[in-house]
Amino acid sequence: MAALPPKKRRELGDFLRAHRDRLSPASLGLPAIGRRRTPGLRREEVAQACGMSPTWYTWLEQGRDIAASPPALSALARALQLTPAERAYLFQLADRRDPNQSGSTDKEGMDVPPALARAIAAIDGPAYLLDSLWNARAWNRPAAALFLGWLDGGTGDRNLLRYVFLSPTARKVIPDWQARAHRVLAEFRADSSRHLEDAELQTLVEDMRGRSALFAQCWTEHAVVDRTGGERIFDHPRKGRLRYQQIAFALANRPDFTLVMLVPEAPRKRPATA
């Protein structure tokens, strides 16, 4: 692991110190013995609660060039009684992956919040929600009407990669299908970098490599691009050629979900005639 830059180390130390100061000895079940010169817990008390040495914890607060492991950060988050958002920030500062965050789509807590599902349903244009493996977890009626063979009824496979690479319908409705498939996989590879060790991700990739020669070829190319959006074109069997601008949003409190919206392009004005 590369060393953290000095600014990030200082921010990590300041973050730990601020959250240590806000806690009282009673919060850790410690007796309040004597008067304290400053509010909050002592460094030694936090270190003891985390099962680490006072010296090592002091070095963290001082911004020394040391690396905190995920188990040590988890222990700090518990001892300092961090909220989920504060815990996520702690791991981001330390440039570590939180072991409590998994790419699994079947684990408890991965359900789509009802308010989010209602918000997606209220969007005028096609919109859908992807999890970390790019399974569609929610979508609206315009999306179901657009993505034939994927979101249009039934209880079939909702994985976007399987749809793009394996569905005969996708080859018909997506112009220049092969180039688009290359792009989709490059976007997925960039997005999946956060959870490469996840067993379900590895299972998905191996399954796709065995079922699609194009996927296998693209995967070995290691192409990576940002999911920046742009124009998306579809040849719909009933509505003809449709053009959209794609916009993707990362949800602030659910990093495992990505909201994708397709905004219809404005009709092109015809030149005025004399």
Give a description of the structure.
With 274 residues, the chain is of the alpha+beta class. The protein folds into two domains: 6-93, lambda repressor-like DNA-binding domains (434 Repressor (Amino-terminal Domain), Orthogonal Bundle); 114-264, Beta-Lactamase, CATH 3.30.450.180. Helices cover 42% and strands 14% of the residues. The chain is built from twelve helices and five strands. It has helices at residues 6-21, 43-50, 54-61, 70-79, 84-93, 114-121, 141-146, 160-166, 168-173, 177-191, 199-211, 213-221, and strands spanning 127-130, 136-139, 230-236, 240-251, 254-264. A five-stranded antiparallel β-sheet has the order 2-1-5-4-3. Helix 2 (43-50) crosses helix 4 and helix 10 packs across helix 12. The longest helix is centred in the N-terminal third of the chain and has 16 residues, at 6-21. Mean pLDDT is 86; it is low at 102-109.
